[in-house]
Amino acid sequence: MKTDKKKITSFTEHLNAQYGKKGTETREKYEEEYEVFELGVMLQEMRKERGMTQEQLALKCGTTKSYISKIENNTSDIRLSTLMRIVRLGLEGHLKLSLTE
């Protein structure tokens, strides 16, 4: 029996092949989009942990269900002040930011 041995690559190798090495325009665009996606997922998980619907969250922080959905699904940019309001008022949480190289 003949088996094909496929080379297993690391995630970094995969990213390099798909989007180029760190510092390239394509890779930077990917990294930026991923961070926005990740933020939406974190907000959605926190909302669900608190047993809230998108509509309930929107009412608590003074926005719309549609806007919450767009943030969670990475189809809308979000202002920092709005993010802080969603986290602080809507989710009763705290936002921590960090900068890295």
Structure description:
This protein has 101 residues and is mostly helical. It has one domain: Orthogonal Bundle (434 Repressor (Amino-terminal Domain)), CATH 1.10.260. Helices cover 60% and strands 0% of the residues. The protein is built from 5 helices and no strands. Helix 3 crosses helix 4. The longest helix is centred in the middle third of the chain and has 25 residues. The chain is elongated and about 60 Å long. The model has no long low-confidence stretch (mean pLDDT 90).
SSE diagram, text form:
Blueprint: H1 11-19, H2 25-49, H3 54-61, H4 65-72, H5 80-90
Helix pairs in contact: 3-4, 3-5
Defining key terms:
101 residues, mainly alpha, 434 Repressor (Amino-terminal Domain), 5 helices, elongated
Provide a brief overview of the structure.
With 101 residues, the chain is an all-alpha fold. Helix content is 60%, strand content 0%.
**End-to-end distance:** 50 Å
* SSE series: HHHHH
Number of beta strands: 0
Structural Rg: 18 Å
By CATH, the architecture is named: Orthogonal Bundle
Structurally, how many domains make up the residues? 1
Oligomer: single chain
Query: In CATH's first tier, which class applies?
Result: Mainly Alpha
How many DSSP helices?
5
Q: What is the overall pLDDT average?
A: 90
Taken as a percent bin, the fraction of beta residues is under 5%
Percent helix, as a range, is: 55-70%
CATH superfamily: lambda repressor-like DNA-binding domains
Main sheet makeup: none
